Amino acid sequence: MNRNDVTEKIIAAKVSRGISWASVAQKVGQSKEWTTALCLGQMTANKEQAGAIAEVFGLSGEEAKWLTVVPYKGSLPTAVPTDPLIYRWYELVNVYGTTIKELIHEEFGDGIMSAIDFSMDITREPHPKGDRVHVVLSGKFLPYKTY
After folding, report:
1. Active-site residue 88, yes or no?
2. Interval 46-67: pLDDT, tens
3. Helix/strand/coil percentages in the chain, nearest 5
4. Which of 33, 91, 102, 106 is labelled catalytic?
5. CATH 3.30.1160.10 region(s) of the chain?
């Protein structure tokens, strides 16, 4: 058994039981974004969080322990960019890409977020520990059609 096996079991239980990530997040006590990333193998749970997830998805004690192990982050096996800023976006998509995909599909169905019918807003957000980059991405949802 390994972390990937636990992730696959979580996904299978989510599908078979019709569980939403938001409902899991409520039980874990964290955001749906972070909780989804955790369940998809990209974050590390504490003992209580692992217990809550085990209860929701029917995991054994051994499987729950895997949720507390620091994962190998990055779920998209592609070439790594060298520009530092672009690399950080690559890192963001590599760690959270599967979470974004999962949550968009859960909310909208099978399709994509358009980068053609799309807007982005980047602003500086003052912060006592150093200014933050505030990014808002908005893309039209395009469902896959059947034919």
Report:
1. yes
2. 999 999 999 999 999 999 999 9
3. 50, 20, 30
4. 91
5. 110-147
pTM: 0.75
How many other C-beta atoms can be found within 10 angstroms of the C-beta atom of residue 125? 9
Q: Which ranges in the chain are annotated with CATH 1.10.260.40? A: 3-66
Q: Which H or E run includes 132? A: strand 132-143
Query: Of the residues 55, 88, 107, 138, which is catalytic?
Result: 88
Question: What would the CATH number be for the domain defined by 110-147?
Answer: 3.30.1160.10
Q: How far is CA 146 from CA 8, 115, 143, in A?
A: 28, 22, 9
Condensed to tens digits (0 to 9), the pLDDT of residues 97-140 reads 999 999 999 999 999 999 889 888 989 999 999 999 999 999 99
Domain 3-66: state its class: mainly alpha
23: phi then psi, degrees, rounded to nearest 5: -70, -35
Answer yes or no: are the C-beta atoms of 22 and 36 closer than 8 Å.
no
Q: Tell me, yes or no, if 91 is annotated catalytic.
A: yes
Q: Which of 23, 31, 60, 114 is catalytic?
A: 114
114 part of the active site:
yes
